[in-house]
Amino acid sequence: MDEAIVKLEKVSKTFRDFWLRPTVEAVSGLDLEVRRGEVFGLLGPNGSGKSTTIKMMLGLLPPSSGKIFLFGLPPQAKAARAKLGYLPELSYLHPFLTARETLMYYAGLCNLPRKVARERTDQLLEMVKLSDVATRAVGGFSKGMARRVALASALIGKPELLVLDEPTSGLDPVSTKEVKTLVKALAKKGMTVLTTSHLLADTEDICDRVMILNRGKSAAEGKVSELGESLEEFFLAKVGSGDDFALADFLA
Question: Would you say 191 and 127 are in contact if contact means Cβ atoms under 8 Å apart?
């Protein structure tokens, strides 16, 4: 568990306008390690730099400075990407494909032999409790069901590292519990999981270690148990409530 699967060294990301003038520094001098076999939570309010950090890890955004390694390789390396599963914050599924066809499609992108693809598709549909609706078009699914299809798609290649960007975003309490149960089950089987969230209860339930981001910088890092009995109180003490205006003035 000491091996660093993900490593960021002094990583920064500055976004620029059309004339290449800096507009916002989304991430600033970030050091981060995710070790093999752990569930790591990247916490912070909206706009704290979580999704930008994830996109740089995945090679979807180049860092302005610093170094990023996945399995000791650059994020763009094919060998690193072959070990990676990714669930974006917003799941875009083809509405006319069935749940089974969706998983088979992603299996094809992973170059899985057809027999293996069918076996894994059946296993994953069972795991996310969608076997009974496997032949229904996903366009008619609820958001929770669609989220489970997307999660199964991220797992079709049996990744060593699963990256979840706001996995419970917009889900009802029942669907949220189902997703968290799945993540905990995967972690028990030894999968390394990196998840982002602004919902503290989700992180307390599933994570071994967390990092709290604020304005692109690390405000705190450690085991959930080390950050006090209430992670919410610690969070608010570090980054504040997020209220940048006086309510009385606003209502006046």
Answer: no
